[in-house]
Each structure stands twice: as C-alpha cells, then as structure tokens.
Amino acid sequence: MLIVILALQRRKKRRSILQSEPDSETDNNETEVNEEEATNETEDSEKGSTTSTATASTATANTSNNTTTSSNTSEQPVAPTTKTFVGDYITITIPTAWNAEEIHERPTYGDVGLIEFNLYNAAGTKVFGLYAPEALGWGGNECSDFGTYKAFSDYNPASYQSYVDFFTASCTGEPAALEFISYQTETSFLGYRIRRTSGVYRMDSIKGDQYFSEGRESGLPITYNLQSTGISYFLGGTYKEYIYTITFNPTASDYTQLETALATAVISQ
Questions:
Q1: Under 8 Å CB-to-CB from 14, ≥6 apart: which residues?
Q2: pLDDT band, very low/low/confident/very high, at 172 (cuts 50, 70, 90)
Q3: Confidence (pTM)
Q4: Which of 112, 88, 102 is nearest to 237 (CA)?
C-alpha cells in the first residue's frame, strides 16, 4: 500500500515539473526579446548620439570658419593718415602727404640754432613758417606803420591804451580806432593761441593769460618772443635771441589740416 502511494506522489511531481517547463521557456524567450529590444534601443541611441555629435561638430566648424573670416576681415591693414616729424627743436604730427623742416644755420651771418621751421602741404607749398629775423629792430616809420587796431572781445585794454599813448606822444594825426572782430576757429602752437578770421590767422603774443593780446595790423611782419617755449638761436653765433616772425599761407583746403597739426606741436625732448 505504501508503495502505491509513493508511486502516485512521484507521478504527480513529474506531471508538475512537465507542466512548469513550457512557462520557463516562455520566460526565457521573453527575456531574450527584451534584451534584443534593449540592444536595438541602445544602438539607436548611440546612432542618434553620433549624429548629434557630428551635427554639433559641423556647427562648431562653421562657427570657427565664420570667426576666422570675421577676424581676417577686421585685421585688414588701414593706411595711416598722419606721420610724426621729430626735429631737434620741434616735434609735430602732420598729414602723411605733408612735410616739415627745420633749418639750423644761416651761414651768411653766422647765425645758428632754430633759424626756420616750415610746414609744406601735399603740393609743396609752404603753409606755415617760423623765421628768425636777420636783424632785430623796427625798420621804418613807427607812426605810419601802425594800421587799424583790430582786436577780439577778450583783448587787453592796457595794450591798446599803450598804443594810443605812444602814438599821441610820438606821432601826428589820430591813433587808429579800436575795431572788434570775430573769429571762426581757434587752435594753438606751442601753447600760444591762434585764431582764424576771414582767412587771416592771428596769434596771441602772451601765453597763458586771459587776454588775446594780438590785434594790431601793420605794414611789417609781427614778431613774437618765444622765450617761454625754450626755442632760440644765436645771432652771429654769439647773441642768444628768442624773437621770431610767424607767417601763415594756407589755402582754404588746408585750414583744417593745418590747425590740427599746429595743435600737436611740442618741444622735442
């Protein structure tokens, strides 16, 4: 009897095992399918990542190319419009087509130092000149040489009164009446103010005060004592002087360039 019971139990156990085996295979198949899908998704993800990376690299390359092109464009050389003249006495920035010169001796009289300083425009015309007179002194009739006394609104009343007093004491007739004038532009040269009015340049004779002291016109060139600037010359190689005549001869097309250049002038170091 016991043997029959054991045989029945073994038969039931075997039947249970046989019934469970197909489920195991199904699970295994599902696992394989899931693993294959996961593998395919991973591969697709890697392909997408590769495509994305390639696209990003292309964009980076394009950006780099654009940057390089922009950089090359911005680095195109620009031709200079000015140059700097460095003389023994004066340093000045002028247009590239202009020229400047210093003359340091006048052999005929034995004069040495800064004898002349000149600026020439592109056509070779002298537009500005600073010149050491060959002899100092007033060479003519002082009474007749005094012309119209023109002045700006910030003139020095004491200067005009000094002229009137001299003329009254030493000359006949009436001193020139004071005539006020206006100006279009103002620049400077070695610290001295220069104003242009109706194409005529006038330079202040005293540097650093509140007045514009130049106002008189005469038949002779006006001279300036430029001792405060440090430039000088020796008459006959012996007598140190600081008196200079300054002349202006620009055309209307030179005005702006000349005025800009003059303002850059300094004493050479």
A1: none
A2: confident
A3: 0.68
A4: 112
Instruction: In whole angstroms, give the CA distance from residue 180 to residue 194.
Output: 16
Question: At a CB cut-off of 8 Å and minimum separation 6, what does 244 contact?
Answer: 130, 131, 132, 133, 223, 224, 226, 231
Q: How far apart are CA 163 and CA 44, in angstroms?
A: 103
Q: Are 197 and 184 in contact (CB under 8 A)?
A: yes
Q: Write the CB contacts of 166 (distance below 8 Å, at least 6 apart in sequence).
A: 142
- Triad 101, 107, 112: Cα angle to 5°: 60
Helix, strand, coil percentages in the chain from 3-state DSSP, rounded to 5: 40, 30, 30
CB–CB of 151/163 below 8 Å? no
Tokens of 218: 């005469």
Q: What are the structure tokens assigned to 63, written together?
A: 């950006």
Give the tens place of pLDDT for each residue, 136-152. Answer: 654 455 676 666 788 99
Contacts within 8 Å (CB) and 24+ apart, 218-222? 218/145, 218/146, 218/147, 219/140, 219/144, 219/145, 219/147, 220/138, 220/139, 220/140, 220/145, 221/245, 221/247, 222/246
Q: CA 20: distance to chain centroid?
A: 94
Q: Closest Cα partner for 231 from 134, 137, 130, 136? A: 130
